[in-house]
Specification:
Blueprint (H helix, E strand, L loop, with lengths): L8 H11 L4 H17 L1 H7 L8 H18 L7 H8 L4 H13 L6 H11 L13
Helix pairs in contact: 1-5, 1-7, 2-4, 2-6, 4-6, 6-7
């Protein structure tokens, strides 16, 4: 196994899934819940989007759509294989949305305390996306 500081998000995601296989359904449900939230509020988010730098509304919503499509296409079968789960949610730019979802989920009262610690250890505890209203 690689040292933590040598791991990328794909390695960290696979490790998280291997350490907590019983939580993979909850992780997928958290990702799905965030997809649903962003998709249901898309118009408002796009209108109020003011994010400097890398994240544009268009980029963010491509990540949301990709995660949503993977869940719709693969269903619960993703939760049966940690590497497959990691390949779909933690590879490349897709990991940005997934990490956002996990950091949010870690603060949920239903998140297992050990899983919360693991999420914070592997991915930190700062939100990747701060949505602020446009300045007039």
């Amino acid at each position: 196994m690689k040292a933590l500081n040598k791991m990328d998000n794909l390695n960290k995601g696979e490790l998280l899934c291997k350490l907590f296989p019983e939580e993979m359904n909850n992780l997928q449900n958290a990702i799905k819940a965030h997809c649903d939230y962003f998709l249901q509020n898309e118009t408002t988010f796009r209108e109020d989007w003011y994010q400097k730098g890398f994240f544009t509304a268009e980029f963010w919503y491509r990540l949301v759509q990709t995660a949503y499509s993977e869940i719709e296409r693969n269903g619960d079968s993703l939760c049966k294989r940690p590497r497959w789960f990691a390949d779909h949610f933690f590879d490349g730019h897709n990991s940005l949305f997934t990490v956002h979802c996990l950091v949010e989920y870690a603060d949920d009262e239903h998140c297992d305390p050990q899983l919360k610690q693991a999420i914070h250890l592997l991915f930190g505890n700062e939100r990747l996306l701060q949505i602020t209203p446009k300045e007039n």
